[in-house]
Amino acid sequence: MSALALATLLFAGLLAAGIGLLLARLDRAADQFAAGDGRQHVVREVDALLPQTQCAQCGYPGCRPYAEALVDGAADIDRCPPGGTATVQALATLLGRAEIPLDPSRGATKRPQVARIDEAECIGCALCLPACPVDAIVGAATFMHTVIDADCTGCERCVAPCPVDCIGLEPRATSLADWRWPRPGTRG
Amino acid sequence: MTAPVLDLASIRHDRRGVGAVMGEVMLALIPGTLLFAWLIDPRVLANVALAVLAALVLEALVLRLRARRIGVTLADGSIALAAWLLALAVPPGLPAGQLLVGVAAMVLLGKHLYGGLGFNPFNPAMVGYAVLIVSFPITMTSWPAGGATPSPPALERTVEHAPRDWDALSGATPLDRLRTLERAPGADGSGAIEPGAMILSSAWPWVNGGFLVGGLWLLARRVIGWRIPAAVLGTLGTLHALHGLFAATAQAPVLVELFAGAAMLGAFFIATDPVSAASGPRARLAYGAGIGGLTFTLREFGAYPEGIAFAVLLMNLTVPLLDRLSGAAGTPR
Amino acid sequence: MIVRRLLDWQSRRRTPRSPGLRGGLALPRDKPGLDRDIVEVPLPRVLVLPLVGHGGRTLAPMVAVGDRVARGQSLGPGLLASAAATVTAIEARPIAHPAGRPAPCVVLTTDAIDAPDIPLAATFPEPLRPTLPPLERLTRERLTACAVTGLGGAGFPTPDKLVTDTMQALVVNGAECEPGIACDEALMQVAAGEIVAGALALARLVSASRCLLVIEDDKVAAKHALRAAIATQTDGTEGLEPRLVTIAPRYPSGAERLLIRLATGIDVPGGERPADHGVLCVNVATARAAHRARLGEPLLSRIVTVAGGRAQAPCNARVPFGTSFAAVLDATGQRPRADDTRCRSGGALSGFDVAYEQVAVTATVNRIAVEPPLTSAPSSPCIRCAACSDVCPVALLPQALLHHARADATTAAEGIAIRGTSIHRAALDRGGLGDCLECGCCDLVCPSSIPLTATFRHARGVRRNARRNEADAARAEDLHRRRETRLATRVTQAPVARPVPSAGSALERARARRRRSRARENGDR
Predict the structure, then answer these.
(1) C237, C270, C302 - which closes a domain
(2) Which of residues 5-44 of B touch A (CB under 8 A)?
(3) pLDDT value of position C415
(4) A93 & A132 share domain
């Protein structure tokens, strides 16, 4: 065998060995990641895609439990109405799953809304306060209750506990501050 | 359709459309083309006219098939310019039919296959050239003598005894013969001839000079940027110089190499095609350097005498990577 | 990776080598109306003052219909009455805003005694009409009381810019680089003394160690006026000497961030406040307003370039806030021709078209123009010529940004809380979309007539929405987590099911009332 052929064989062999070692190292790292706090990392990433409405329409008591269920494979990605199809797509991309349509039995995707307490009807029973997952209702027994617009996520969990049915959902008020330049070529 | 938001018309700033830009490039091609016609072979003018006309007609047909607006697209002049460059790149004696094949390849494979202006990854003129040179290798390497003296003694003796009814005498370009000479001195029986003299005594440096003048004018008019031509010529020159220092056989001087073949045409007109070239500033330097390097490699160690065409096509392949590395990724390709 | 570092355009972009302006365009000088005196527009019968704050937020009115208001009285937070008047209405009216939507406004009918307020042939600067006592030193409260806002076009309330008490430098922006607008230059020519005095007052207020007035080289008369004013006002200023800095006339050197870099060398990245880098930058007219505020006069008017119609001579006019564009055009003798159907507020590049001539002049309006309808050449595909990046003053690559902006499908999914980032939005952030000045230089040079600036404006809006969504979601998550923590650490009291008030007649009556009122509402709709 000529020197050149030997050298080529050696080089090819070294290259193959090198690539093999690299792949093995990467594979080992991936296993370590998944077993350790890698899971928490993925749960955080999934949670970062959920809208944080904390509405429990998915069947889980908040967005974080749903994220954990998604990572564990206990739930599918079609359960979040406030997130809409955009969130389904983002979850599909992140988790590497097939994109499926939003499950209509979970509820409809609504425009941003805030709860409003009709002060004429409110009897100050404070039953709505513990229902709010983000503590957006202020009030106390026998005192007037009100919703803090900036904190309210529109999850509707306060509507059911109210014995006088005085909480309604209204579209979130928009002002010129919400106006944006339209995409060129569209009506905007 | 929303109304435009900027009132650009009221700003007094002369703005060149695509058609105007292509037009200026074509103006810049005129000196070199005329020198080519006068000093080498006037048939190049016929080739240019035929190629441009055929390209326009073919593009109109394709646009009709694609249901696009014909007038506006033809007016942008890009296919006419590409056709002109193709006509300059092929030997003037190329049969018209073969030239038309090249034009068809350029319009269809080089441009509209990818979606038209702005979307083609390869330089359309070079695609046409590549198709021609692999399809018709004999006719594509038959260049006129171009007034090169001294002719090799063997050739002279043949010509002396030429019968009256020979149609043509095909031969290599001076660059081609230079290569032969450099690799095996005395191979064509010409004895010890100074390599540089081979090129200088031919008309090619003048033609290249004409393209250089056009290219410098384009630079001054800010139609092209300085980075690509500078990188191409700089790299090509440097590599030729190094080769000249370390090669076993005598080589032509650097300047001669830079004025030989299609170096100037390639550096200023072909490599600078904006659609197929890199777009970031540093990416453009790398792109030009790559073209220079590949041209040198193909000239010295490749089978073809001139390397610009394949060098450009190969570097076109690397453009998405160069743009991505320099953060300049543009139109989806 | 070495190759990436060698090729990386981005790493060079962040730190410009020299303080000079990179890119930009040298546009021909186009400063209308400087050959004439500033025209005084008389107070109109009706004033319309929008209850819209900076950034578009709605202001709560502090007056009611029928109230009599004095000149300079607050109508809302930061909004003053331009004259003694009666509040005729508080309703939605068209305003000078690119949205083209009406917004709540206070409509005033001026008292007869206050109009006309100054004889038309007055000399400039106009006499002082204070409503507050003069101060020895300017204070932030006085700026608020006089509603001093930025008059450069963005309308940022000046007191809100003073986030810290100490700044390195005060920069007064007299560049006015956009063609077609000359209101600042006209002001500099006639009120240079007041401008310098205002600059000194502001510099003292923020304890700035440097006070720079920046002007373009080709504003010759204004330059001389400022130099003369500086020469007479240098002593007694606690060691602070105002300096005049001249820059080459190049668009858009007058953009705040760029100007700060040209004048002081300090680089303020996009999205950050100059105040956080120790620089306060105000427009020349704002500086003058600050001076007059110290002397007790509220900011109730501004100079506007009026370029109505193509046949008449354009001019610069002093206009009380709340005057409609139509009234300004009448008062300055501009008669639009039949085909001048388009009304524009602001410059050719930085302005926007407004639908009616009934919109009123506010602090953000620096030019009024009535022109023929806009036409634009049809756009063709990008030829990757990179002329746009050669000209970009903040060293972006518009070609790359265009690709990503168009590819990002997130458009008007309005308000749906989309989180996470697409490849394209991430690429836009990396590519520096946040630094984009929306100056329009790229549009001016693009051979394919691509609407670059319009695309970037939209993309920046999407970006702003995405960031706001992200902030809202983070807030909700934070509140939820605090609540969970609170509930978990509560040892004594578990949430007890409180007894529902007995289902007696009171509850029944309440429910029945609710059902009736709901039915009525549904019946009305």
Answers:
(1) C302
(2) 5
(3) 42
(4) no
A63 belongs to a structural domain = yes
Distance, in Å, from the CA atom of C246 to the CA atom of B237, rounded to the nearest integer, reads: 45
**C194 close to B (CB below 8 A):** no
Residue type, C1: M
- Report the pLDDT averaged over residues C259-282: 89
Q: CA–CA separation, C388 vs C436, rounded Å?
A: 13
pLDDT tens by residue, B246-276: 876 667 777 777 887 788 999 999 999 999 9
Which of C10-24, C28-42, C91-105, C295-309 has the weakest average pLDDT? C10-24
Residue in chain B closest to C375 (alpha carbons) equals: B4
At A142 the three-state DSSP class reads: coil
* Spatial distance between the Cα atoms of C502 and C130, rounded to a whole number of angstroms: 65
- At residue B106, the pLDDT reads 95
> How many independent structural domains does chain A possess?
2
pLDDT at position B204 is 82
CA C392 to chain centre: 22
Task: Supply the ipTM of this predicted assembly.
Answer: 0.81
Residue A187: its chain B contacts at CB < 8 A? Answer: 2
Output C19 or B272, whichever has higher pLDDT: B272
**CATH number of residue C160's parent domain:** 3.40.50.11540
As for how many domains chain C has, the answer is 2
Question: Which pLDDT tens digit goes with each residue over A56-106?
Answer: 898 898 899 999 999 888 888 989 888 888 888 888 888 888 888 888 888
Asked if the structure places residue A161 within a domain, the reply is: yes
- From A106, A138, A161, the end of a domain falls on A106
Put simply, whether A136 touches C (Cβ < 8 Å) is yes
The CATH number covering residue A154 comes to 3.30.70.20
Give a yes or no: residue C455 inside a domain.
yes
pLDDT of res. C240: 79
Q: Are residues A78 and A125 in the same domain?
A: no
Nearest to C9 among B73, B327, B330 (CB): B327
Percent of chain C with pLDDT over 90: 43
A87 and A135 co-located in one domain: no
In terms of residue numbers, what domain contains C456?
Answer: 376-485
At which of C253, C274, C302 does a domain end? C302
Q: Does C119 touch chain B (CB under 8 A)?
A: no
**What is the rounded distance in angstroms from the CA atom of residue B89 to the CA atom of residue B92?**
9
φ, ψ for residue C432, nearest 5 deg: 90, 25
Same domain, C274 and C407: no
Preceding amide of C119 cis, omega within 30: no
**pLDDT per residue as tens digits for the range A20-43:** 988 888 887 777 666 667 788 889
For helices C452-489 and C398-407, what crossing angle results, to 10°? 60
End position of a domain, from candidates A75, A90, A106:
A106
Task: Give the separation between CA A163 and CA B137, rounded to whole angstroms.
Answer: 92
Residue C1 forms part of a structural domain: no
Q: Which domain holds residue A98?
A: 38-106
pLDDT above 90: residue A137: yes
CA distances from B260 to A3, B200, B240, B257, C97 (A): 40, 9, 12, 5, 62
Contact assignment for B5 to A182 by CB distance below 8 Å: no
Residue A134 has its nearest CB partner, among C410, C461, C480, at: C480
Residue C117: pLDDT over 60: no
Do C393 and C269 fall into the same domain? no
Residue A79 domain-assigned?
yes
Q: Measuring CA to CA, which residue among B219, B232, B233, B16 is closest to residue C383?
A: B16
> What's the maximum distance between 2 C-alpha atoms anywhere in chain B?
77
Average pLDDT over residues B63-73: 84
C498 domain-assigned: no
Same domain, A102 and A125: no
* Contact call for residues A109 and A102 (beta carbons, < 8 A): yes
The reply to whether A98 and A120 lie within a common domain is no
Whether the Cβ atoms of residue B279 and residue B323 lie closer than 8 Å to each other: yes
Q: Are strands C342-345 and C102-110 parallel, antiparallel or unpaired?
A: unpaired
